Amino acid sequence: MDTFSAAVMLFLIMDPLGNLPVFLSILRHVDPKRRRKVMIRELLFSLAIMLGFLFAGQQILSFLNLRQEAVSIAGGIILFLIAIKMIFPTPGGVTGLAAGEEPFLVPMAIPMIAGPSILASLLLLANQEPTRMTDWSLALLMAWGASAVILMFYEVFNKLLGERGLTAVERLMGMLLVMISVQMLLDGVHHYLEVTGKG
């Protein structure tokens, strides 16, 4: 796999367009003056986490005695909880925070941008061809940069959709996220059973 192909793959897994409704829902409860700063902070957090996993993910999991499947199952549980709040809104929105209170690390950086799928893909690239870490780093930066540009223009989508449109998209995305989160859980359990020979 060349660098550009890896970048395209990582970009599709990050799915910034699919994440937009969730980000819009989260940022609606943040002070408008702080929204862009929060977005930049969370994007930088996600990049640091992804680079960390690319270079030291396997060692981190081994040190903590965790399997890769645990990353998938944990991400699935978090996404499921977010999805339920999107379908059945609470006063604090999907994060459960009071109006004006900022999300920190979860759920924007993890698992929306640096989700289990992207972390597992980075682990796979690093393990398969460890001599090409520069290529994989460049691919990750390209994919993250493209995603960041799309997510930074969330306000354009906010104006296009309006309040009712956002609510409708939020509920729809909630339904899709439920299915995605269940699939993550099933994949994690399936891989665990395969590795342990219990499947």
From TrEMBL:
Family statement drawn from the similarity comment of this UniProt entry: Belongs to the UPF0056 (MarC) family.
Keywords noted in UniProt: Cell membrane, Membrane, Transmembrane, Transmembrane helix
A cellular-component GO term for this protein: plasma membrane
Transmembrane segments: 6-27, 43-64, 70-88, 104-126, 138-157, 169-186
Compartments (UniProt record): Cell membrane
InterPro entries: Multi_antbiot-R_MarC
Topology term for the membrane: Multi-pass membrane protein
Any single Pfam family the record assigns to this protein: MarC
Taxonomic superkingdom: Bacteria
Protein name: UPF0056 membrane protein
